[in-house]
Task: structure prediction
Amino acid sequence: MQKNFQQYSIIDFVGDDDFLKHHLHPTSESSQFWEDWQLQNPSKKSVFLEAQRLFEAVRLGLSEYARTYLSPEAEANLLARIRLTNESNNLFEKPIVSIWRNKWTVSVAAASVLLLLGVFFWKLQTDPVSPYYQQIALLNKSVIEKNNVDFKPQLIHLLDGTAVLLSAKSRLSYSENFGSENRIVYLDGEATFDVAKDPSKPFYVYANELITKVLGTKFKITAYEKGKDVVVTVQHGQVSVYRNEKSEKNSLKGVLLLPNQQVVFARQSEQFNKTIIREPQIVALNNKEIINFDFDETPVYEVFERLKKAYNIDIIYNSEILKDCQLTASLTDESLFQKLDIITKSIGASYETVEGQIVITSKGCK
Result:
């Protein structure tokens, strides 16, 4: 055994051939090796012992404990591998006389084992482990998972005061010591986060290929394992969204989102598309301030400034071209885009959304 087990996580151990063979068919040599290894690596002993407990949980069918680390698919794959390893050892360790007496039976059994092994490894290649389970498998500490199997959202309160509304068929995981060293959670599915403010400990959400970083805000993430996109939508505050790059050579390429903005990350093309959400809400900086949308021969540039302040969305326009344009209308009950439709049509202009901003195109008014 010339492997560097010092770098192994719990999941690495239970997936290692030497570890499995020892626990299924221990020998004096393998027992001595692992005893010496634990003495020489006291800092990793707890990881090794936890891997032993996980191995026994899978072997005995204790799914409730096994699911702390493994998905149902990963547990089934590991159980199949344990059985194959066990059957393989039992098969090839039989006496030679017994094998010759049952030559045809042994040949069929060996072929069956090889076929099952082939199916197992083909399954791993064609149905790879999801990013969610790859990420939590790297943790060396116990993981708490909240799995919403209901048909309605489930409200979860984290120890730091953060509230998470976990959608149906979604799951959220975090380390058992969440909040003590960092605030990191892992999402598979959809959830809305209302993050408690703590400037000293940013809040991170790992979801498929993206990482969302915040200090204290409210936002929503949609990141299903088999979905083609990952969508992050901001309601209050601001968040940074970037790819989960493992290489230090890769620069962090992402986007900064403000209220009423969202980013759609296309997983296949790996492209970010920053846009305005479908129905922007009023998020004036001063919640006590009432913004009036009744206009009476009001300069259009002043109208746009009022919209910018109300929705916290940047509106780009040429004030010189619009200096003679005015608006008389009551737009209290209209949505932002309805307001923009009425304004631009009244002055013969048009608008488009570009990178989370609104760009006004106009020839001016005479």
User: Anything to note?
Assistant: The first helix runs from residue 10 to 14. The mean pLDDT is 80.
